[in-house]
From TrEMBL:
Domain of life per record: Bacteria
One Pfam family it belongs to: VanY
The organism's taxonomic lineage, starting at the top: Bacteria, Bacillati, Actinomycetota, Actinomycetes, Micrococcales
Regions annotated as coiled coil: none
GO molecular function: peptidase activity
InterPro entries: VanY-like_core_dom, Zn_M74/Hedgehog-like
Gene3D superfamilies in alphabetical order: 3.30.1380.10
SUPFAM superfamilies, alphabetized: Hedgehog/DD-peptidase
D-alanyl-D-alanine carboxypeptidase-like core domain span: 94-194
GO biological process: proteolysis
Protein name: D-alanyl-D-alanine carboxypeptidase-like core domain-containing protein
Amino acid sequence: MIHPGSSPRHLKRRRALLLGTLVLLVPAGLAAYFIAVLGSFPGVTTHPSGEAAAGIVEPRFTQPPFGLDEANGYIRLGESLSPERADLPALTNLDPGLLKAVRSAARDARGAGIELGVNSGWRSEALQEWMLTQAIKDYGSESIARRFVSTPESSRHVSGEAVDIGPTDAAAWVEQHGNRYGLCRIYANEPWHFELATTPGGSCPALRTDAS
Ligand SMILES: [Zn+2]
């Protein structure tokens, strides 16, 4: 005797159900995958060079802030500037001593087979303010946001005295050799952030916990 459940009509209905489930599940799975890979904060993604794996998340903004462009020091997500570029305020508005040190470091890093890029340099007050507002929204907490994004009044990016360096191997190279040029990593939670903080060849100050 043939079981009613295995009649062709039931099989067809089952196949349709299975297909329908797949059609619903596959896009949901893809969405989950992209959120996991691209970062869970809307508008913010984790640093592309893998600090997220170490539990460190640098806020990088996927959407350019309205009206704030390259003239404000805005650098698109995933873009890394050669320090040699002389056409962008993110670099040209940096303290000349810092820019010179970064350029020297980049040349020597290249000799060691490492390509050094600037992910963020000088920022206008308006851009810094926007980043802080965005970070507070995305982290859901001003105190967490302030660990990564300073106020326009206190930011060393706004004063032209800080650069964020990528990718990870370049930041690691500068952490190891940067003191030759006076460059020091400043914060324990930001392996990408460097400032002129010693005399060339001197030793760097102890790391601060974070920017807050
Ligand atoms: Zn920084």
